[in-house]
Amino acid sequence: MVVLAKPAALEQIALLRTPEAWESFSGVPAVDLSGPGAAADVVRACERYGFFSVVNHGVPAGVVDRLEAEAVRFFASSQADKDASGPADPFGYGSKRIGRNGDMGWVEYLLLAIERDALSKASPAPTSALRDAINDYVGAMRGLARTVLEMVAEGLGVSPRGALADMVTGDAASDQVFRVNHYPPCPLLQGLPPNCSVTGFGEHTDPQLVSILHSNGTPGLQVALHDGRWVSVPPNRDAFFVNVGDSLQVLTNGRLRSVRHRVVAGNGLKSRMSMIYFGGPPLAQRIAPLPQLPAGTQSLPLYRDFTWGEYKKAAYRSRLGDNRLAPFEAPPVATPHADRHRS
Ligand SMILES: C=C1C[C@]23C[C@@]1(O)CC[C@H]2[C@@]12CC[C@H](O)[C@@](C)(C(=O)O1)[C@H]2[C@@H]3C(=O)O
Ligand SMILES: O=C(O)CCC(=O)C(=O)O
Ligand SMILES: [Fe+2]
Fold it and tell me: Which residue lies with its CA nearest to atom 11 of ligand 1?
């Protein structure tokens, strides 16, 4: 029997997108973490966009630059050397395949598990220089995640201030993931008009509480606004970008909304590289609206009770673009009005 392998070129053509022009979004809220009113600004941005950038964050540029340089070195190494750290199942080096359920993107990446404040043994970094650089960087991201989550609690009037931050950085068992994505220029786009592109990382929301992203100066990240419009996020090497994840949406009973985002690889000559810290809680953590939420936030829970372990298991069985929260929504409550109609 002749088994026909799917030609690589066909897989790539499937990633080609219809030509489009995207608005570069000048409205991304930039929160000055050192400024007065930062907590209120964080909550406003999370309610309106589920997304914001942070400036004056206190993360030394050297920590970012060192990791970026080590990551560039890793992705420039031979395919055989990179493959020695793979396949990503889920942790390790991966190329084009994202997750286990058939998602593809024009991207190669390292996906790594963090235990407490350092890379776990389950996901060894390819070189000790890269390992050291990741560990320093992750330490800084844990600090930033803590500050952001404390500000969310403060801005919402939830006490104690550490109620959310402790789930991610206060528990040795918290579930943190780190990822470095590399989007090389796509040869398929050579000679095509400038508005042609390929899917780098398909649209999705992040399942955790919060994700913190840094990228080099190459654009590609896009977010969906609440009116459904997709806009491009102008890159900013001096800032970090924060995404509200699905779990934070549930913990705030839908007041903060997780942001749909994606990466589109365009016709440019430069690679895009991004580094993302995903802050999740321990597997046993109950994900349910915080009891301390202020009056004015929808009083009936919008979601049924679940643990992060249950949600994570369901998430890793889903496709990237699925609405992962839908199966966890609470059944509609019968109102007296609705009952009257039924009888
Ligand atoms: C297709 C998938 C990749 C993903 C696991 C999933 O089944 C659905 C969620 C995906 C996502 C998105 C955010 C992060 O990049 C990620 C590491 C995560 O926690 O959820 C990825 C997962 C992955 O790449 O394995
Ligand atoms: O690479 C990026 O810029 C974003 C990727 C992303 O959203 C993810 O890895 O979850
Ligand atoms: Fe993401």
Answer: 206
